[in-house]
Amino acid sequence: MSLTTTQSLFKLKQQGEKFSCITAYDAAFAHLAEEAGIDVLLIGDSLGMVLQGQSSTLPVSMGDMVYHTQCVARGAKNALIMADLPFMANNTVEDTLMHSGQLMKAGAHIVKLEGEAWLADAIVELSRRGIPVCAHLGLTPQSVNKLGGYRVQGKGNEEAERIKQACLDLEAAGADLLLLECVPTELADAITRNASIPVIGIGAGNVTDGQVLVMHDMLGVTSGHRPKFVKDFMAESASVLEAFQRYNQAVKSGDFPGPEHSFGA
Known about the structure:
The protein is α/β, with parallel strands linked by helices. Helix content is 41%, strand content 14%.
């Protein structure tokens, strides 16, 4: 597997080729995912739910994120490593810079921030300091209490236009990637076509440049409610490596996600 960078993802978008992303939290699974050809490894604050047994991502600390980023960086040498800035770690631009720097020192190549247009000032400053940024819009789990639960975002015209404009504003501020979660396929398609930077989707249809899933979800080991956008790739696989390979191939061929994993307007 060749080295994946933000620039190589940009080239894939220009060529109309899709890329794969999966969450990872330790060296062993990071190594397997990379061996399977997965391009981007996300140390998500989803670790609060799938590893720690929390009811949301909110309790995850900077210490948790730094530790798991270090673990993943030891296991993967060629994948792009992306790490989440956890809840309330970006209260101010200064906080955002300091905490993002900690994740980069831990081994991340790019940091992911949840929010909308108000992230622009922080993204400008991060970009000036050579820290790549992925802006996460749509359903932002850190805002679940404000959003009224885990529900599809951007269904109405006004909400959709706000998200579209936020994507344009954050790209202009210097964002290197966009991530759209739980938005209608039509909205994701419009954003992906209008953005010059790569767009990753989860619950956003197969129209985005890349796809991401939580590793535990795609291996079928998550208890409780399973979101509509999830597919269990372990069900037809003989090993975790094969499940990762199947996921990687399905994303790059455009077979996943299908209509059954997507949302309408």
